[in-house]
Amino acid sequence: MTGALAPAKPLKATDRCDRCGAQAYIRATLPVGGELLFCAHHGRQHVAVLRDKGADIQDESARLSATPAVAPNDER
Q: Is residue 75 part of a domain?
């Protein structure tokens, strides 16, 4: 074994924040096992402390500001 972590699976729309129930964009995988999911708001509040404690952080909050693709026949 190399000790490398398996690639994290992408967060889905059904993944919910453990604090408020909103859509999760941040996953904190704890060094003792288990994970915590956070919306962007709660993730910003807790991610620094979790990282300092050794958690692996998967942050997909950039998806919130991504521009969705527009279909060629989509009229705005």
A: no
pTM of the model: 0.77
The structural domain count of the chain equals: 1
Residue 74 lies in a domain: no
Report d(CA 64, CA 11) in Å as an integer: 13
Domain that holds residue 40: 13-62
- pLDDT tens digits, residue range 28-72? 999 999 999 999 999 999 999 999 999 999 999 999 997 777 766
Q: 43 burial class (0-12, 13-18, 19+ CB within 10 angstroms)? A: buried
* C-alpha to C-alpha distance for 48 and 67, rounded to whole angstroms: 27
